[in-house]
Amino acid sequence: MMQKDASSPPPAPGAGANVEPVEEDQIRYLEQCKVNVRQQAANMVRAIDAGDLEEVLKFANLVLGELRTSLLSPQKYYELFLAISTQLSTLESFFNDAHSKGKKMNELYELVQHAGNIIPRLYLLVIAGSIYIKTKEAPAKYILKDLVEMCKGVQHPMRGLFLRHYLLQLTRDKLPDDSDQDKSGGTVRDSVDFVLHNFIEMNKLWVRMQHQGAGRDRERREKERGDLRVLVGTNLVRLSSLEGVDEALYSDVVLPAVLEQVVGCQDCIAQQYLMEVIAQVFPDEFHLRTLDTYLKTLAHLEAKVDVIALMVTLVKRLAKFGLSQRAKITDEMRLFETFLENIQPIVEHRSDSISTVQVLQLHEALLDLVLSVYPERLAYIDQVYARTSATLEAMNVTSIEDAASVKILKRMIMLPLEAPAPAATATGAAAPPRNTLADVLCLEKNVDLLRLLTPIHKKQVALSITRSAIERGAPIPDPEKIDRLVELIRPLIKDEPGLEAEADEDKEEFEENQNLVAKLVHILANESSDMTYRLFYNIRRHFGQGGFKRVRHTLVPLFFASMRLCHRVYRTEQQEAAGEAAPAAEPRQFGSIKILRFLLEIVNIIIKAFPETGLRLALQAALCADNCNSSEMAYDFMTAALLAYETEISESRAQLQAMQIIISTLQSTKNFTEDNYDTLAKKCTMLSSKLLKKPDQCRAVVMCSHLFWTERPIPATPGETAPEWHDGSRVLECLNRSVEIADKCMAPNVHAPLFIEILNEHLFYYAKNVPEITADRITELVNLVINRVSALQEEDLPAIMAYKQNTLRHIRWHQASPREPAEADKYAAIAIPH
Amino acid sequence: MPESRQHCYVLLASRRAVWKADSKTNTTSLQNQFGGSDYFSPTEMADGRKTAYVKVIFLGDQSVGKTSLLNQFIQKRFQKKYKATLGSDFFVKEVRVGETTVVMQIWDTAGQERFRSLGSSYFRGADLCCLVYDVTVGKSFDDLDNWKEEFLLQAMPPDPERFPFFVIANKVDLPDDQRMVTSSRATEWIRRRPNFHHVEASAKSGDGVDQAFLQMATVALERNREDRQVLTPVQVRDVDPPPSKCC
Ligand SMILES: Nc1nc2c(ncn2[C@@H]2O[C@H](COP(=O)(O)OP(=O)(O)OP(=O)(O)O)[C@@H](O)[C@H]2O)c(=O)[nH]1
Ligand SMILES: [Mg+2]
């Protein structure tokens, strides 16, 4: 669009137009100008001292004449302008003086217009006019009007812009405003009209630059325009600094006029810059009031204008404002709704020129706004999410992979979970309340955004969420929230298509991640045991789908947490039964038995994946059940352990170890019925005698003998004290069996120590006065041991000999120093050959 | 606290006195008080009082409170509303330092880079640079060094390592829990920079503001006097040609 220019610019002295001199030439030229300026200014001052008005004006003309140049770039011209305008301040005071000596300002105002060239003439007019206003010889409004009109005489863009800038500068403190005592000069409306008029003229000059000169100079021209833009923008600063420009005047007069010019000029650079300046130089309170107008205007800007950047600027500004002054943003302002309503059509209309990252930036800013202004309105957050995914979908974006977009998207998902940055809260009042984890888990639409990420990024988000959830440690109030959480961190919970490629991810990293997931269990524990149980139950369902490699990391911590829960519930049950604690207000849904069953489920899953771990957990659970006086469940756990042993454990060392802990666990239980105990003990003995290696069998069977001679009380039938579990014949049976097995071991260095061990066991029971273990039997064994040890080879001797000697020394010690008379006879009955 | 009058026109009157003084003592060079790289020295008045002109540049991040500090100093007013500054703008105010009336020309600038398109040629000839930070925004403190560098680059003082800087820690009225830059951290930072001065102030309450400007005037005046001595040879080149052409 070509603007018609009636008055051609005045010819530049000594240069063809539009030929940009090189930088050094400019510097030299500028220096020359400044020397001239100083010279002529000195002359001017002398004339001032001489009081010769005509001479003063002559030299002032010469000073100002330098501004007629076309040879300087905007920055250099600005430097010259600054040098000249400082010199001219002496002229201001001269006019001022002249006035106080009786000179009429209207005459002076006329007189300066005799200057030959338009540039000096108008600068002089501006100076005279500004003093004229100050002296109040005429109302400011008329002088302002005249000045702003007269400046039309300069139509060369750069020179015109600086002239008008000067006008704005000199009148800065002379614009009629509401706070003025004396209203004769005009009202703030006059000032507004004046600045608006000046703004419109300056913008026209600025826009016109774009259309002058050859097409190939476009780049340079745009650079020059960029440099000069601040001059145009200063008009808006002036408007905003007028006190009388309140919200009403701004929204009714100022903004509409400015926007009309901005839209009407149809210039991309001007629109981009001025819309941003509007957003920045006027206060937030004004924007809140005119938000709709501003946003609607965006739709009418040139296609190349980056409206998203403009919206982001405004949203960010208001978000910052909202952080410190939330109270000032009322519901009637419909801040959030207004943004949503306006964003949609603009984005739709420009969908082919808008990029994914822009859409994300905009919605990210909107989310910041929601979180700072409406921190408690979760629905708004979901709306932003829904809008984002809908917009992207409309743009056929199905996957987001570029780094910038991914970063924003991740931040958007994480934002509600994160505390506001301290820096953001610095501007004012207290930080908005933080959403709890439970709040965040009410959100539903974040999954739609998550879906756009690649598997690897999804996993990163999942980790961040998990970390944040653990860090918050906030209780989760209902089981459905677990499902939401799992949905967000799914890649950590189970294998997902797409991630298999890197399934062989660093083992260490995998374990670290799974341990992190396991920590989630800790944030589930809850005041209410019922709720805790339900949360555990729900998360178990999800953990259970994680495959073997995960359950070890996730289910084990859950197992222990559940066991703690079981103890806790049992204790309460006991207290309630004993009347020590008032029964819960609401009847308990899940008692200790129920929790034990849950433990059994967990144990069975773990056994399948990791039999040895599972077996041990089963035994732990058996003790727990026994402690909780639930012998049935204890029996089930023991059975599970034995089954695991039989079906899953095949390596001989593992078998022996497993058998040993099974036996000792059974031995430490207290509450089995006789039948159940018997069954289990027999089963242990039977399995022990089937161990792979003879020595193992022997030792395990010896151990089994202890199952039949324990301190374990048989459950007391009412009125009876519980007898101990003493069954000498079964002890003997086990010991006999062990001797048989030891005897079958061929190598003397294997069976000799076995016999010594068996001898020691006998001595144990003999001390306990088990009737079936007689002195004869021991004598027989002693002979057997001596006999077998003597058959040993030289190199095996020392250790076994020592063992044998110690054992015999033990018997002799009993014989020699009996603690009571009965003992003397008892040990004397054992014969030790010499 | 010496009396300080508030409106700009005092300046004009005093300048007038300067020309008189100049013409009387037959000084050939009439220096522009604030312009370019010309320095102006305190001038003896008829009544024995002196007047000096100093130029101060305000720099600092967006919204640290540069404009607010100036408003508080000049108009004794504070506005909660934030209005970004565009480009640059100067204000004039005089203060008394001992026997000398110091006329301060203070340049307010835009903290936002993209609002400073016309360059910074007005930095030249400054006697002092005032760097402002917001005690509740750590970054604004971290950025001080950048602002210093930028200033020295554009102002090109002959002795950059000795050029005086004045640092204002603004917004100290805000509650302590919002404070991100502690006094001790700032003091430590300043200690390592001998040519830096530091004060805390609040443009909102006015605390420390007048004192800050008075101190600035003092420092700037000192610099201005030193310049006259140190830089005399340099200045010779800049001196106007003899007024032979003059009538
Ligand atoms: N509480 C408090 N707020 C202040 C203080 N000084 C400034 N502000 C506020 O901070 C915001 C920014 O102040 P300005 O003076 O405009 O900041 P600036 O440094 O000029 O900003 P730019 O012009 O963008 O570079 C405004 O909202 C002021 O009200 C202060 O001492 N205390
Ligand atoms: Mg400012």
From TrEMBL, chain A:
Family matches, as InterPro entries: Vps35, Vps35_C
Bilayer disposition of the protein: Peripheral membrane protein
Keywords assigned: Membrane, Protein transport, Transport
Source superkingdom: Eukaryota
Pfam families: Vps35 (PF03635)
Family from the record: Belongs to the VPS35 family.
Function: Plays a role in vesicular protein sorting.
Protein name: Vacuolar protein sorting-associated protein 35
Organism lineage: Eukaryota, Metamonada, Preaxostyla, Paratrimastigidae, Paratrimastix
From TrEMBL, chain B:
Record SMART domains: RAB, RAN, RAS, RHO
Pfam families noted in UniProt: Ras
Domain of life: Eukaryota
Keywords, comma-separated and alphabetical: GTP-binding, Nucleotide-binding
InterPro entries: P-loop_NTPase (IPR027417), Small_GTP-bd (IPR005225), Small_GTPase (IPR001806)
Family, similarity comment: Belongs to the small GTPase superfamily. Rab family.
Protein name: Ras-related protein Rab-7A
